Amino acid sequence: MFHILGDRERDRFIAELGAVVPSGGLYCVLGDVRYDDRETYGLSPDELRWRFEAVGGWDVVFSFRTVFKRRWSSNPAYLVGVKRR
Hints:
Layout: H1 7-17, E1 26-32, H2 45-55, E2 58-69, E3 74-84
Antiparallel strand pairs: 1-3, 2-3
Protein name: Methyltransferase domain-containing protein
InterPro entries: SAM-dependent_MTases_sf
């Protein structure tokens, strides 16, 4: 549920992710598209790239634009994979 976290929570989440993802491990996130950098909700591959680069030890290895389908709706989304070095 990364795409619903605020900026501080996102930074903390990423900083602590290394405690549960071993070296060589892959973290995959599926979330709604963030249309505007001022919005809290949603995500973008560029945002994930700079947040993980700021922590160090991670590489974005794939990013796909897709659709997040729910029972009554569907929204543009991204599926992003980030690998721990």
